[in-house]
Recover the amino acids of this structure.
């Protein structure tokens, strides 16, 4: 186990290195000089040159990369070129809202998906099954930014029940925090629910066909008990795996939801930084996101093993 | 379908057989064909030119003249949606085809030759995969500048790893099979084996994945347009129509409703089709 | 203090809850906190480094300039009063016993340190170019100093009423280092409590402000990118003041009794630069043809929904002492355009590219320009870029016709000199007119307003004839508030909340 973990962790290094190189190069290829953009219309040529020098933009890209990498290894992510904030606290501050949003979306999706998936599997090829599958497919086919716009139209503009955007820290005001969370979490949760429901249904169908369940039925155990204890326990592995994968994908999904709802998370931060050519923030954010992504994948694998003793890590 | 062109004749009949006895796939195919027909015949079906300005009739709600209303420059929304179908379908199809061609080739090479090829190709794919896809597409589109072609490229790159992984996994299975061994023993060239034996045998899951990614490519294109990184105006795309509609959510909600619904129904069709194909080819489902 | 802050916060935030909505008035009665919805977070709070439009809303609340402008753009004393000995020498006297937010005294030495910093090339301050006519800043006493100019520079006081005249604490600059940009210690009516990026900037009133403590105790700036959402929040009572009201909502807002819409003629202009250094716009007739092809009224209606006014030059109606209402050098006429093209020897449709940033309003403008120009013998293609590359594209002259909007300054010089003099930093057009350069230099140094006005009008006439820039409209400053807020609107759109009261 320890050795497995070490190997897996070691294999992350080339991936993180690769993503950081790509992010570093890509953002520099986006046209538009950050020094010119920051100084605006009024700056003269000497100010632009000074700023480029300050930001080390006059150095060759390789020099820039390795000096950045060297600082990263000491935990120094540099400063944002937009306003001079330290990048690391900026990233960590944005991580909180993203985590809250992701967990809320996941919770909403599970609350919808697991019961509907089970009901659909219990009554396959009935009206209930078809309508559940239909709804799931609708959820999958809905572009999330459009869903976000529809929710704002319906519940912020027509019926002003929820705020259309913004963020309130849970430490300042928990009620306000949750109130702002509803629409973005629903938007993000909808597509997740669709995928999870389909997975739950398929897995439950498979489990319900096993001899083990048939035996349980033959012994006359009540249906509810069979479903909620026996069957679900066997179905949880693929479902947990799916949730792990979804958590990884959520990191991408939040980008859109956060932009639509002005949610101050890591996704909005990254998009804004790309548009502002804020190189250190883009580099730091991509590195952090990639790290989270691979760690979540790893955690999913580990969880998978602990749930199913038959799977051995080698 | 464009993807089907890649197939050998036997493959095509296989695909077609998938629709008999599968009403969901048939409905999906129907919706996709409808979208394709609308896109091809756009100038015939559209009641107005998509870029015809009319400053008298701006922000008009749906009426008998303008079935889906007009936008802030008085352009007919229905006509713009019909023309927008072209952009969405072309970008969706091309980006999937490009990603499928390159990704599959890379996956076959990795799976068949193994060792260093495998390690190198798959590590690159892992790296691409570790980026949140929407950010990568956004960054590439930003580097290349907003245009239709660049949107296609950006979306292709993002989808490469999916095809590469599937092709590699399938190739690993197929290369062990007896008839591949036999062909090798008979002295067939490597290229011959790859293209005539491996490729046809790994096509079904690639096609299934292609139809599902076609759906997500349409959404990604609309999102890029939504951020202003898609096609150039005055070309109508569903994404840039939505982007524009945001400022008129209160005054003219139909501007946001209809283009979004067009994306939704097309993607819905692709997903149905993809599901149907998967039921046919993937015994696990 | 922390506790009461939290409670006030809670009150504002709960105003968004469904329960509170029904009785939103209960919460707007909290007269202690004012929450403002703005389009975007500021980039920096350091006035020496500010370069974006998004700092305008915040700047006068945190920082106090040496002199002030009134809503009709007249100069009045700020931190200092001023006397001109001659047109090269300005003597300033600071008000006594004033301090910055951190208690550092505001004296002549602090002022000189500020100017030295802005003028130091190592600071890379965008202020350096507008302060370049300064020869030296001389300390003449504890509270008195003299600014000596290299050449007469009539706009000096207007420049010092803006970012270049905003004084910050030299002690804080030293202790905060690069963090100064987020914590900004100035001398304005409010000081920074906290700033969470993309979320909120919280300010509290500064008891030592020279006009006396501001009536409203706390101010929160909240970035809300979407204009519709900003208005929704204003209606629900979560915020009480918004900037950048979308033009399309003006008519509707005017009918809402719980809100107040204020509009004023702005300081800036919406315009497109012709690239006069390459074909086809190197030919003045082609530029005139394009100008004649465009119906500005149509643009004003379709893109700006009738707000603001059409523009024929760089100086807006808000600068009443220079702006000439009767100045209409050309009218829209496709036939005139076609004839000018024929005169220039262009027969086939002339292909040109219009470059705009990808914001919906800009794209809309480009689409209308395209439709109109295409009818007058051009073949227009639209190229979208993102906002950050705009200045790079302009500076590299990588365009045929490119948007170059200007937010405007309180002095006409700030709208025209940098754009139309031969070596002006914003002369993206490559416009080389000796006559205009000479007129603008003279206008800069002429002491009397009447003489300056005459020179500017003459320059505008020449610019209109040479058509290096396609002027479209003068935008209006559109802002709205809850009826319970008593506040003053300025043409520059900046909020000066020391004058605001909540009832």
């Amino acid at each position: 186990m320890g050795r497995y973990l070490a190997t897996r962790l070691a294999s992350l290094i080339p991936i993180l290195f690769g993503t950081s190189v790509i992010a570093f190069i890509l953002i520099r290829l986006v046209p538009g000089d950050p020094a010119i953009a920051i100084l605006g219309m009024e700056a003269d040529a000497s100010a632009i040159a000074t700023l480029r020098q300050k930001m080390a933009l006059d150095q060759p890209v390789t020099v820039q990369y390795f000096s950045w990498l060297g600082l990263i290894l000491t935990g120094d992510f540099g400063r944002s070129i937009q306003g001079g904030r330290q990048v690391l606290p900026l990233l960590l501050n944005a991580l909180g809202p993203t985590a809250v949003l992701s967990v809320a979306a996941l919770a909403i999706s599970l609350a919808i998906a697991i019961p509907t998936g089970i009901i659909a599997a219990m009554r396959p090829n009935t009206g209930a099954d078809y309508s559940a599958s239909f709804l799931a497919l609708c959820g999958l086919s809905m572009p999330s930014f459009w869903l976000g716009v529809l929710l704002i139209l319906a519940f912020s503009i027509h019926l002003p029940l929820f705020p259309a955007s913004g963020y309130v820290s849970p430490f300042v005001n928990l009620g306000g925090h949750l109130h702002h969370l509803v629409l973005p979490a629903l938007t993000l949760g909808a597509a997740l629910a669709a995928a999870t429901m389909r997975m739950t249904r398929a897995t439950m169908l498979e489990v319900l066909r096993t001899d083990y369940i048939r035996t349980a039925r033959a012994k006359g155990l009540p249906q509810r008990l069979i479903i909620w204890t026996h069957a679900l326990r066997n179905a949880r592995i693929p479902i947990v795996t799916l949730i792990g994968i979804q958590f990884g994908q959520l990191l991408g999904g939040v980008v859109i939801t956060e932009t639509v709802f002005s949610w101050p998370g890591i996704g909005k931060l990254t998009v804004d930084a790309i548009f502002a050519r804020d190189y250190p923030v883009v580099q730091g954010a991509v590195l952090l996101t990639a790290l989270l992504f691979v760690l979540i994948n790893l955690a999913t694998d580990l969880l998978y093993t602990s749930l199913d003793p038959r799977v051995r890590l080698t | 379908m464009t993807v089907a062109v890649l197939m050998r004749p036997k493959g095509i009949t296989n695909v077609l057989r998938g629709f008999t006895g599968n009403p969901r796939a048939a409905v999906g195919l129907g919706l996709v064909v409808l979208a394709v027909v609308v896109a091809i015949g756009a100038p015939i079906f559209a009641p107005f030119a998509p870029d015809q300005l009319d400053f008298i009739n701006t922000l008009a709600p749906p009426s008998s003249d303008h079935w889906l209303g007009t936008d802030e420059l008085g352009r007919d929304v229905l006509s713009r949606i019909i023309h927008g179908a072209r952009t969405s379908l072309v970008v969706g199809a091309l980006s999937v085809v490009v990603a499928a061609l390159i990704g599959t080739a890379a996956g076959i090479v990795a799976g068949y030759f193994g060792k260093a090829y495998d390690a190198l190709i798959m590590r690159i794919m892992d790296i691409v995969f570790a980026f949140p896809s929407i950010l990568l597409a956004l960054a590439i589109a930003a580097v290349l500048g907003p245009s239709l072609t660049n949107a296609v490229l950006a979306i292709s790159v993002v989808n490469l790893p999916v095809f590469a992984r599937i092709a590699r996994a399938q190739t690993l299975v197929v290369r062990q099979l007896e008839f591949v061994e036999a062909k090798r023993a008979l002295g067939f060239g490597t290229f011959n084996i790859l293209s005539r034996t491996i490729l046809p045998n790994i096509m079904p899951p690639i096609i299934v994945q292609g139809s599902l990614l076609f759906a997500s490519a349409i959404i990604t294109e609309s999102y890029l347009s939504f951020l202003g990184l898609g096609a150039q105006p005055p070309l109508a795309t569903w994404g840039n129509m939505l982007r524009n509609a945001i400022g008129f959510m209160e005054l003219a909600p139909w501007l946001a409703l209809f283009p979004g619904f067009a994306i939704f129904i097309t993607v819905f069709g692709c997903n149905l089709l993809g599901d149907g194909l998967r039921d046919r080819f993937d015994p696990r489902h | 203090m922390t506790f009461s802050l939290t409670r006030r916060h809670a009150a504002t935030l709960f105003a968004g809850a469904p329960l509170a909505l029904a009785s939103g008035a209960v919460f707007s009665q909290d007269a202690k906190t004012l929450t403002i919805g703005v389009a975007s977070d500021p980039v920096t709070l350091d006035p020496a480094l500010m370069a974006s439009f998004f700092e305008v809303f915040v700047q006068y609340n945190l920082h106090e300039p040496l002199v002030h402008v009134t809503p009709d753009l007249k100069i009045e004393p700020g931190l200092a009063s001023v006397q001109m000995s001659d047109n090269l020498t300005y003597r300033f006297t600071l008000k006594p016993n004033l301090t910055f937010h951190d208690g550092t005294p505001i004296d002549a030495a602090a002022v000189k340190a500020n100017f030295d910093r802005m003028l130091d090339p190592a600071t890379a301050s965008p202020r350096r170019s507008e302060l370049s006519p300064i020869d030296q800043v001389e300390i003449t006493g504890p509270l008195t100093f003299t600014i000596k100019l290299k050449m007469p520079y009539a706009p000096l006081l207007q420049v010092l009423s803006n970012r270049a005249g905003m004084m910050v604490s030299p002690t804080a600059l030293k202790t905060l280092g690069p963090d100064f940009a987020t914590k900004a210690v100035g001398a304005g009516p409010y000081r920074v409590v906290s700033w969470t990026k993309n979320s909120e900037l919280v300010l509290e009133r500064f008891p030592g402000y020279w006009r006396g403590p501001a009536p409203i105790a706390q101010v929160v700036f909240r970035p809300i990118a979407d204009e519709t959402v900003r208005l929704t929040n204003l209606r629900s009572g979560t915020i009480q003041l918004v900037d950048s009201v979308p033009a399309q909502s003006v008519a509707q807002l005017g009918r809402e009794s719980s809100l107040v819409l204020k509009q004023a003629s702005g300081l800036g202009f919406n315009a497109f630069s012709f690239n006069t250094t390459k074909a086809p716009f190197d030919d003045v007739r082609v530029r005139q043809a394009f100008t004649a092809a465009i119906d500005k009224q149509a643009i004003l209606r379709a893109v700006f929904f009738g707000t603001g006014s059409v523009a024929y030059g760089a100086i807006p109606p808000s600068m009443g002492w220079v702006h000439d209402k009767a100045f209409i050098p050309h009218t829209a006429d496709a036939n005139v355009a076609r004839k000018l093209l024929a005169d220039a020897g262009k027969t086939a449709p002339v292909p040109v590219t219009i470059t705009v940033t990808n914001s919906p309003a800009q794209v809309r403008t480009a689409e209308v320009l395209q439709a109109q120009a295409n009818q007058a013998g051009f073949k227009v293609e639209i190229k979208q870029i993102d906002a950050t590359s705009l200045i790079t594209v302009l500076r590299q002259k990588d365009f045929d016709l490119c948007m170059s909007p200007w937010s405007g300054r309180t002095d006409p010089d700030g709208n025209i000199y940098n754009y139309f003099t031969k070596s002006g930093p914003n002369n993206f057009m490559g416009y080389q007119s000796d006559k205009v350069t000479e007129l603008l230099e003279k206008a800069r140094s002429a002491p009397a307003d009447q003489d300056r006005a005459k020179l500017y009008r003459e320059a505008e006439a020449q610019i209109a004839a040479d058509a290096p820039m396609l002027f479209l409209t003068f935008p209006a400053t559109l802002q709205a508030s809850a009826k319970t807020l008593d506040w003053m609107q300025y043409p520059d759109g900046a909020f000066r909340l020391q004058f605001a009261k909540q009832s």
Remarks:
- Chain A is about 80% helix and 0% strand.
- The CA atoms of residues 170 and 178 of chain A lie 8 Å apart.
